[in-house]
Specification:
Chain lengths: 621, 439
């Protein structure tokens, strides 16, 4: 090194050393390490989920019941937001300072670069107004999304609603489809057909500039819209039913007997499904799902209220089960001595038809007595036990006391008491216990009172069973899924009752007589043979409940219906006329009935529309 | 070698250097074009875009270069001080201009601006070469060293006042020239020692050892311990008459270490501004703040990294160009990002190799001179080019703190390309006369 001439080698060595060092460094950051590539990706690329459009819902005639509308979410990028603008933003958006702070207060620095949702579900016009009010800023953006709209608002209990996904749904989702804040079906068909309606999420990979603006597209997997669903509902009938049930509590279920398709499902009081549209669920949830709401507006009473006792309509089942079991035949007669149950004045129940026509209580007391006490054992206790088991099995085959596997969530089982029920569950405070109960203690079941509980959908299904003479398709709400038009397989299988079809004839005949000349004369329709049965369910605390099931026309049943009007007193007073109006409406819409509407029918309709039925708690306004 | 049959042009131009120069200039403008291209200005000669202007600057540089090649080399040896003086006057004058972003570094001339500090690089080189070739001056003399320091200090100081700390740093490069011209090699070793101790101090400044020692104390204590050991070893193993020399050297090293330990701490604490301190800390990995102070480098390294092996292809950058604007100062200080991103590792490798070949070639040219002036000037040029390479590329790939100095021939900017071209062409001219001159 002392030779100055050789110092050039030192200098050259330094040059080459740095060159090699830098090449090594380049090799490291370009080939080996992923750290800088990851960073580059986070700052220059963005992967966007493209949410598919949710499937529409149509009624059976193609009327749109649920559609979509574009909405806009107002977002703020915390990083670009200057706190000086806080007051202005609060003023123009209506957010409180605390709410704004919650939006801006995000954990990671990456989130600070991302738009954070401040207000969701703005309509186009709301978005435009807000845009004008806001000061120009890079921090603000509007993200487009869809919300559910209901152009023909009806049947909220059937359609259900969408809302932000709940944690338990997120946890249950093993496919990783959902992200927080996603909208999912939370009730009704929206919930049970979520997989069909939601579609396939698309992905969009974009390149952005330093300000986060989209500059180029890397990859775009388009979203595939969800499948449209055709419901079994007839919107005209549904709307009419909801109208008829205004100012009443209760429900209507109408079924097409041939197919099990639910034509109408009304739960009163009802509400406009649009209140839950978009951000509405968050805003209006408490007002609809109010635990203090004695009217239980949010509940779908047609499937949920299974503690309704069926009352006299249950006599139909008793007659059928009795004949099948051979304890009576169509000509069996009992004396109506108004004992042990009271009865009204009516001709002598010389056979089962007359008994049904006049709804004779003692007659069915005797039928039930014979069903339970078949003489198989000496002890009444053991005999009742044996009888109840057989009876209960037969009753269940009518879809009573079992969960009808219909396609909206929330359906309840109802109650058909079995031996274990009386052994262990009833009465609630101190159950009877094994072999400590007998027919004499439970005979009120014989006329549909006692411990029997039935949901309106099960009552309508009973009417359908009688119309079909012994079988039914599980009632369901979705007729077609998507383009190929399949319905779920379980709804294409017939369920048979344990009663032979021959036994249905006298019952059907009696039901027609009920309408012509019995308790349901208000259900008569000119030139249509209606078969029906009223029920008046005892209610100790207030007026009795009014129940009616029917099907028509008798010769070729098109519609089976159950109407339950709480506190409506006699079955013939409210339930029967409402059911007949529904039947008439449907048959006219279907072209089965082309005659001019009678004055009676119009008067009936007027009476139903205008009446307010008092209930236990208050007068419905 | 023969480049031209013209009798006016010098006959023995160094072809390799000239070719490398031309290649770099063309690649440079091509890189700017790819990064600043916009569909509104599709023409290469759009004067509203940087590539259009850069072409004008290159044209002007070549014109100046041509003139330089026509000038007798003696002119440069003769007028070295005058040129230096003139540029220094410009540096003084520029301080009285209206500042741009707080820095008084540019003369505005119509649409163009002139940055005299870029010209100071070749001017100082000329003056430096002139000083060391003056008879009876040797770099080993204290007086000469003082003069040399003065020649460097004047532009250094003037540029500091602008302020433009990046450009000031370039004058450190002359250490290499001094070393080549005979100054003790210790200066390089001391520099290395200072560097190592400095970095260690910054690393350990907030740590606590054995419950009471901070980093600098630990380093100093360790140095004292080492010295004690070497004192003992010297007394034991070295003959008496040599001992004094070793004692002094050991003590000097100890003094340097202690001085640097606490000096660094003081400089780091009180002299550096927060901004510059943070830049050091980012490089040393002491703070990680890709959004804040580390942003520029995080972005530039990200851009380079995405080039991977073969790059995204010319014009396909998705980070380092004006459209995406992910790399700040993209066309000037961070132009190498484009090379890395569009041509990948292979492109970077080729670039670095070519650049090092250029440096080697300049050293070879310098070494073949009989003229001491040309040799020293050649080394000045090599050192300046090397230093720009060291800082600029190092900054882009994250081994050197962010310092605003251009990459020669690539970075956008008229003054810098003119300055660097003059450096190259003066060397080419002087070299072409190597057989004629005897001094």
């Amino acid at each position: 090194m002392d030779n100055v001439q050789n110092r050039k080698f030192v200098i050259l060595a330094i040059f080459i050393f740095i060159g090699v060092l830098y090449i090594g460094r380049l090799f490291y950051i370009q080939i080996i390490s992923d750290e800088h590539k990851e960073w580059a990706k986070t700052v220059s690329q963005r992967s966007l989920r493209v949410l598919p459009e949710r499937g529409y819902m149509f009624d059976r005639n193609g009327v749109v019941l649920v559609g979509n509308e574009k909405t806009y979410d107002f977002c703020i990028v915390p990083q670009k937001f200057s706190t000086e603008d806080s007051l202005g933003v609060c003023k123009s958006t209506g957010l409180s300072i605390q709410e704004l702070r919650d939006v801006l207060d995000v954990e990671t620095s990456y989130d600070r670069l991302m738009p954070q949702k401040a207000i969701s579900g703005l309509s186009i016009s709301e978005m435009e107004t807000l845009k004008q009010k806001l000061v120009e800023g890079k921090a603000f953006s509007f993200i487009e999304s869809n919300k559910r709209v209901y152009p023909n608002p009806m049947a909220p209990h059937v359609l259900g609603f969408t809302g932000i996904i709940q944690k338990r749904h997120m946890d249950a989702d093993t496919t990783g489809y959902y992200r927080e804040q996603d909208f999912v079906g939370r009730a009704g068909v929206e919930s049970s057909y979520e997989k069909e309606l939601r579609g396939l999420i698309g992905f969009k990979e974009i390149l952005k500039d330093n300000k986060g603006q989209e500059k180029a597209l890397v990859k775009y997997d388009t979203a595939i819209a969800g499948q449209n669903i055709t419901l079994t509902l007839d919107s005209r009938l549904q709307e009419y039913g909801e109208h008829l049930m205004i100012n009443k509590i209760g429900s209507i279920v109408a079924i097409e007997p041939k197919t099990g398709e639910i034509l109408s499902m009304v739960s009163a009081p009802t509400y406009d499904p649009n209140v839950f549209s978009g951000d509405g669920l968050r805003k209006n949830y408490d007002s609809i799902f109010n635990p203090n709401d004695t009217l239980q507006t949010s509940k779908n009473k047609a499937i949920y209220n299974d503690t309704y006792r069926p009352g006299s309509i249950f006599k139909l089942v008793q007659a059928l089960v009795g004949m099948q079991a051979g304890v009576i035949d169509s000509t069996t007669s009992f004396v109506c001595n108004k004992q042990p149950m009271n009865c009204h004045n009516h001709p002598h129940p010389s056979n089962v038809k007359v008994a049904i026509q006049h709804s004779c209580n003692p007659y069915f007391y005797n039928v039930y007595r014979r069903l339970l006490l078949r003489g198989e054992a000496k002890s009444h206790f053991i005999d009742s036990r044996f009888g109840l088991t057989k009876w209960e099995e037969a009753v269940r085959s009518f879809g009573l006391g079992t969960k009808l596997n219909t396609d909206i969530p929330g359906i309840k089982t109802g109650n058909v008491p079995d031996t274990s029920y009386y052994d262990n569950e009833f009465p609630l405070k101190k159950p009877y216990g094994r072999n400590r109960w007998a027919f004499s203690m439970i005979y009120s079941n014989s006329i549909g009172e006692g411990e029997i509980g039935v949901a309106p959908i099960q009552m309508a299904n009973l009417a359908a069973i009688i119309a079909n003479r012994g079988w039914y398709y599980t009632p369901h709400l979705v007729k077609e899924i998507g383009k190929n038009g399949d319905k779920r397989e379980e709804y294409t299988k017939k369920n048979y009752t344990l009663v032979d079809s021959a036994y249905f004839e006298p019952v059907a005949y009696a039901m027609e007589q009920v309408v012509i000349n019995g308790t349901a004369r208000r259900a008569r329709i000119d030139s249509v043979r209606v078969c029906g049965k009223t029920g008046t369910v005892e209610n100790k605390s207030f007026n009795d409940h009014s129940v009616f099931i029917a099907y028509a026309p008798a010769e070729d049943p098109q519609i089976a219906i159950a109407v339950y009007v709480e506190y409506g007193t006699w079955g013939g007073t409210w339930a029967a006329p409402i059911a007949s109006l529904m039947i008439e409406k449907y048959l006219r819409d279907q072209g089965y009935l082309n005659t001019v509407r009678s004055k009676k029918s119009l008067a009936k309709e007027k009476r139903a529309f205008e009446s307010v039925i008092q209930h236990k708690h208050a007068i419905i306004k | 070698m023969r480049l031209s049959s013209s009798s006016i042009l010098p006959k023995k131009l160094d072809a390799p250097l000239l070719i490398i120069y031309l290649v770099f200039v063309l690649l440079g403008v091509a890189t700017i074009f790819s990064s600043a291209y916009s569909e509104e200005f599709p023409s290469l000669f759009s004067m509203d875009k940087e590539y259009g202007k850069q072409i004008v600057y290159i044209g002007f540089s070549l014109f100046v270069g041509m003139i330089i090649l026509l000038v007798d080399g003696k002119f440069f040896t003769f007028s070295a001080y005058y040129i230096y003086g003139f540029i220094m006057l410009l540096l003084v004058a520029v301080l009285f201009t209206k500042g741009i972003k707080g820095a008084h570094s540019w003369f505005k001339i119509g649409p163009f601006s002139l940055q005299p500090s870029e010209l100071a690089k070749f001017a100082t080189s000329l003056a430096f070469a002139k000083l060391l070739t003056t008879p009876n001056r040797k770099i080993t003399d204290a007086r000469t060293r003082l003069w040399a320091l003065l020649i460097l200090a004047i532009p250094g100081l003037l540029i500091t006042i602008q302020p433009d700390p990046g450009t000031v740093l370039v004058f450190v490069a002359f250490v290499l020239v001094m070393y080549r011209e005979g100054m003790s090699g210790l200066i390089l070793l001391v520099g290395l020692l200072v560097g190592i101790v400095g970095v260690m101090v910054v690393f350990t400044r907030d740590s606590v050892w054995f419950g009471f020692m901070s980093g600098p104390w630990l380093i100093s204590s360790f140095a004292i311990l080492c010295c004690a050991v070497s004192y003992v070893s010297i007394t034991k193993f070295v003959r008496k008459r040599f001992r004094r020399k070793y004692y002094i050297q050991t003590t000097a090293v100890l003094a340097v270490v202690i001085l640097v330990s606490f000096g660094t701490l003081l400089v780091h604490k009180y002299v550096l501004s927060d901004r510059h301190r943070d830049r050091f800390d980012v490089i040393l990995g002491l703070i990680e703040d890709n959004q804040g102070v580390g942003y520029n480098q995080a972005q530039s390294m990200g851009a380079v990294a995405t080039g991977e092996l073969f790059g995204k292809g010319y014009g396909n950058a998705t980070m380092s160009n004006d459209e995406f604007n992910q790399v700040p100062e993209q066309s000037t200080d961070f132009i190498f990002c484009s090379v890395g991103e569009e041509w990948g590792f292979v492109g970077g490798l080729v670039f670095i190799c070519l650049y090092v070949i250029m440096l080697i070639r300049i050293v070879m040219i310098a070494e073949r001179q009989r003229s001491q002036f040309t040799r020293i000037f050649g080394y000045c040029a090599a050192s300046i080019f090397f230093f720009h390479f060291l800082i600029n590329i190092g900054m882009v790939i994250g081994v050197v703190p962010v310092v605003g100095i251009p990459l020669p021939f690539f970075s956008y900017g008229g003054s810098s390309i003119i300055g660097f071209s003059i450096l190259i062409f003066i060397l080419l001219r002087l070299d072409s006369e190597r057989m004629e001159v005897f001094s």
